[in-house]
Design a protein that fits this description.
The protein contains 16 helices and ten strands. By secondary structure, it is α/β, with parallel strands linked by helices. The chain has two domains: 192 residues, D-Maltodextrin-Binding Protein, domain 2 (3-Layer(aba) Sandwich); 143 residues, D-Maltodextrin-Binding Protein, domain 2. 48% of the residues are buried.
Length: 347
């Protein structure tokens, strides 16, 4: 993955999108479909990094034209429209990328990453290189950058303090349609209840469900902490996202155009990671001020949480390269978790 090679050679001239569009007629317009929006890390990184970099390096010959808030398409539909030539660039969660194949499934494994810093370092480097290469070969999409939208999912519930998995027993826990999440919540002892996101605040308020496992910034936006006052920082499920382009359309670009697009995507990646970390930090700080408990498990308790993820890994077996998964865990010092997974024939 290129890391500012072109930017170091040429430097940014400080040309804004507006000036670039006005001064030079674009030869290539790359339409980008995303459910992100301005004011959130994805939208701001597109607006402040990807768009101006493409304009500046190309002298306005390439313009990235964003369509925010799902105005063109939802995540999976955007990928389909890219393959149909209706747009060129699109973003989605790594989970929804699964509609096109399992190339990015490794990013969705619970506890594949130990911290946000580890996730950023590994997803920015060799793992993205390997998996995005596989994606280009098997899905019809060339994935430029893998990044997070909201960091890790964390537990929040309206009933009682939860310090270890046994404390979840009997609680009705909201889950998405993800089989991995369903298995994970069940393994931790709670009762998984598929429940619509838009109704979650009311569901927690009325007791239809007692808890949720959602990335912190999204919990804060939805004000779930107003009704779920007990939080547990267990991490596990990383909120992976990706930005990619239809392979056929990418290959139709000249070598120079490809270099411009690659560099613009790199700039996007660097900015979105920085903005996302702050988004997570701000969300945590805000929620902590308004709840009864924010609990950080001990390392011994974390071993219990990770052990509960073994079933999800076993269910996902065959969708990821076990050697790459083991490499990622080993680089983070998670040797005990590797041993646990191997003992269960999950790795």
């Amino acid at each position: 993955m290129l890391k500012h090679t072109i930017l170091r050679m040429l430097g940014l001239a400080g040309v804004t999108l507006a000036l670039g569009v006005q001064s030079v007629a674009a030869e290539t317009v790359l339409k980008l479909g995303t459910v992100g929006r301005l004011g959130m890390p994805i939208g701001d990184a597109i607006d402040q990094a990807m768009i101006p970099t493409a304009v500046d390096l190309s002298g306005g010959k390439i313009i990235v034209e964003p369509h925010y808030r799902g105005s063109l398409c939802g995540e999976q539909k955007c990928g389909e429209q890219a393959n149909q030539g209706l747009l060129q660039l699109w973003t989605s969660s790594t989970a929804n990328f699964g509609n096109f194949g399992t190339a990015l499934a490794i990013f969705d494994l619970p506890y594949i990453f130990k911290s946000i810093e580890d996730a950023d370092a590994i997803s920015e480097g060799w793992m993205s290189d390997a998996q995005c290469k596989l994606a280009a070969e098997t899905t019809g999409h060339i994935c430029f950058v893998v990044y997070s939208s909201g960091g890790f999912r964390e537990l929040g519930n309206a009933e009682r303090p939860v310090h270890k998995p046994d404390d979840m027993k009997g609680l009705k826990w909201r889950v998405t349609k993800s089989p991995i999440e369903y298995t994970l919540i069940k393994s931790w002892g709670a009762v998984p209840v598929p429940y619509d996101w838009t109704q979650l605040y009311q569901g927690l308020q009325t007791g239809v469900v007692s808890g949720q496992y959602v990335a912190i910034p999204w919990q804060y936006i939805a004000k779930l902490h107003e009704v779920a006052q007990y939080y547990t920082q267990i991490g596990g499920a990383w909120s992976g996202n990706q930005i990619s382009m239809d392979v056929a359309q990418y290959n139709a670009l000249s070598a120079e155009e490809k270099a411009w697009v690659d560099a613009a995507a790199d700039e996007f990646g660097d900015m979105v990671r920085k903005l996302d970390q702050k988004w997570v930090e701000d969300g945590i700080a805000a929620i902590k001020q308004e709840i009864k408990e924010w609990y950080v498990p001990t390392e011994e308790e974390m071993a219990l949480w990770r052990a509960g993820a073994v079933g999800a890994w076993k269910d996902a077996k065959g969708t990821f390269d076990p050697q790459l998964a083991e490499r990622a865990l080993a680089e983070q010092g998670l040797d005990d978790f590797i041993a646990t997974l191997k003992a269960a024939d999950a790795l």
